[in-house]
Amino acid sequence: MNEVPEPFRLAVAFGRLLRASGLGVPTTSIVAFSDALALLGLDQRTAVYWSGRSTLVTRPEDQPLYDRAFETFWEHRGIAVAQSQPAEEISVVFDDDEDEEGGEPDADEDGGERDMLQVRFSSAEVLRHKDFAAFSSRELDEAHQMMRHLRFVSATRRSRRFRSAAGPTVHPDLRGTVRSAIRTGGEPIELRFRKQRTRPRRLVLLLDVSGSMEPYARAFVRFTHAAVIGRRQVEAFTLGTRLTRITRELSSHDPDRALRQTGERVPDWAGGTRLGAGLAEFNDQWGQRGTARQADVVILSDGWDRGDPALMAEQMARLARLAYRLVWVNPLKATEGYAPLARGMAAALPYIDHFVEGHSLDAIERLAQVLAGDG
């Protein structure tokens, strides 16, 4: 087994301390911090401090907590730098239980109170790999906060519009060249060029809210809310016995209000499953009118369908012709021995570009990486 590099090991350990202290540090930030440590080394305190602050701290109000955690963690690892002042003595207490009422701060031998940094263990690392079906309501709320830290980077597409280019391209800008020649007495001394603009691809999320998806639908709604408020050009729908558009309900930055409005909007929650009919309604009313054209379409479903498999295959073929990329997120895919034998899943599989897991936060992070790519 290969030995874990020291920068990576220390970055992971420090990230766990920050999470335990209450900072929402995504895994991608820890990876970026470890890469910075590998490049800059561990010898200089200033380099370690600023590489961590630039990659791990996203809000100004988190800076004091980061500073204290940095002193507690890194000062004991012998970073070679002269200290202008003696370090303040801090007692660190780790506690994974609830606060006890009436608790008093510890006192030293002289009877005075000691400065104490109380760090509470967080279940964030455990939740990343835990199955959504086993989540409690409190864990779902914590998972939603972690999802909001995901960066939903859009894959881009070429626009029909052009803009000025700094250097030569295959598209000469005749109008710009003539306009420039007017200032030089009609001589086209400076040739101008242009290039095509790029735009983010639209993201369409189709969420199965049938009875078989009920253990995962709550977490997927939270993921959908994070995607809607985290980037532009996102459309969200639910699939059950009917098709329901929930983009407007999830547009609120208040998560409680967004989820409450979504629950009131969707009448077929935990009901039957008619995926083929729902996709047909989406293709007729939304997809063919432009919503799905050259878009990334993500279907979050276990593939159980009570309808006709032939209808499912027909509508998936239509959707595949409209969309740029079809991604199917199945929470059952991570189950040992799983095979896509459900009628709806088997009918849809030939038209899918990416078939990914969706049972945990770690799987959702990988989904975000798939959506960020353009291949």
Summary tags:
alpha/beta; 3-stranded antiparallel β-sheet; 6-stranded mixed β-sheet; 375 residues; 16% strand; Rossmann fold; single chain; 13 helices
Structure description:
The protein is of the alpha/beta class and 375 residues long. Helix content is 42%, strand content 16%. It has helices at residues 6-21, 27-40, 45-56, 63-74, 124-129, 137-148, 174-182, 214-230, 255-265, 275-291, 309-322, 343-348, 361-372, and strands at residues 91-95, 116-120, 156-164, 171-172, 193-200, 203-208, 234-239, 243-245, 296-300, 325-330, 354-357. The longest helix has 17 residues, at 214-230. It is flat.
Architecture blueprint of SSEs:
Elements: H1 6-21, H2 27-40, H3 45-56, H4 63-74, E1 91-95, E2 116-120, H5 124-129, H6 137-148, E3 156-164, E4 171-172, H7 174-182, E5 193-200, E6 203-208, H8 214-230, E7 234-239, E8 243-245, H9 255-265, H10 275-291, E9 296-300, H11 309-322, E10 325-330, H12 343-348, E11 354-357, H13 361-372
Helix pairs in contact: 1-2, 1-4, 2-3, 6-8, 10-11
Q: Cα-atom Rg, whole angstroms?
A: 26 Å
- Number of structural units classed as domains: 3
Tell me the major beta sheet: 6 strands, mixed
Termini gap: 32 Å
The helix tally amounts to 13
Q: What would you give as the CATH superfamily of the largest domain? A: von Willebrand factor, type A domain
Short characterization:
The protein is of the alpha/beta class and 375 residues long. It has helices at residues 6-21, 27-40, 45-56, 63-74, 124-129, 137-148, 174-182, 214-230, 255-265, 275-291, 309-322, 343-348, 361-372; strands at residues 91-95, 116-120, 156-164, 171-172, 193-200, 203-208, 234-239, 243-245, 296-300, 325-330, 354-357. The strands form 3 sheets. It has a 6-stranded mixed β-sheet with strand order 8-7-6-9-10-11. Strands 3-5-4 form a 3-stranded antiparallel β-sheet.
